[in-house]
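Good morning C.,

I know you're traveling, so I'll keep this short. The sequence:
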Amino acid sequence: MRRILFHILASLSLLLCLTSIIFWYRSHHIISPSLKIADSIDIRKTTPRYWILTHPNNLTLCRQVGKNWDYPLKEFKFLGVKFGGLWGQDSMLWNLIIPFWLLTTLTAILPLFEIPLLLGAFERSMRQTHGLCLNCGYDLRASPTTCPECGRPAPAIHRRIDSLVAPAI
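The tokens, ready to paste straight into the viewer:
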């Protein structure tokens, strides 16, 4: 169950990684030269409003409540991530700016851990279909019950196939 959950999370992370790469590329094709905005995606148009903007090399997440902002929020900066905004009477505007290099790197980590698992599963599958020991790769056609190389019992699938094939020979 945990492995299936890991596969699903790695797939979603890969999808987010590819999406961030596409937005990163598109962030250099400015559609609004005065604001230096490449893409603007409105998530919600009613209060509180949420939207996403892409500037060259940066993704900006925005949240807005009201329209009278008089005081600046305390800014936060770390590894290129910036948080800041404005607030006022029953109003707030905040921006979270994330560099695309950081977003792409973070979303690529989980799929990179998935690669060895997929290669191992593919290798085990190939060994099983060719009648080899799943542990060491020794040919089990001559000894269908146990592997003479490592001593591991052969999978039940090999025993059934050999028992079905042997009478025909």
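Safe travels,
E.
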